[in-house]
Amino acid sequence: MKPVLLVDDNDRYAEMLDKYFRDRGYTPERAFNGKDALGMFKGKPADYYRAIVTDITMESQLAGLSFLWEIKKLGFHGTIVVASTGFDFPLAMPLSRMVLTGWGVHYLVPKAPMKRAGIIEFYPVSLFSSTLKEFQEVQ
What we know:
Layout: E1 3-7, H1 11-22, E2 27-31, H2 34-42, E3 51-54, H3 64-73, E4 79-84, H4 92-100, E5 107-110, H5 112-117, E6 123-124
Parallel strand pairs: 1-2, 1-3, 3-4, 4-5
Antiparallel strand pairs: 5-6
Helix pairs in contact: 2-3
């Protein structure tokens, strides 16, 4: 069993991510917002989830960045993926890479290719790394 926590308030994207990870042997668990995700995270050991995939622009009491801050304080050391529609704007990806490095984020996933063609691409936060077509956990 390889549990992954999916945090997204958009059903369409969450379903696409769920299928992607199920097809690769993971067991996705879904939260609709950061507050619910934090409750799920706190209910398990800090190393329970192999990866966390979260939107950062959710409309909820606890936004994605706050959620990332909290799990970092609680000792999460697994792979963190941020999936967002915000990466689709010019310069958003390079700026996000610089900002999110300090938040423990490993990959960025723009949602536009998911919406257009069902393609999920993983952009490592490190500036000069190549895009990955397949998810890889960070050790």
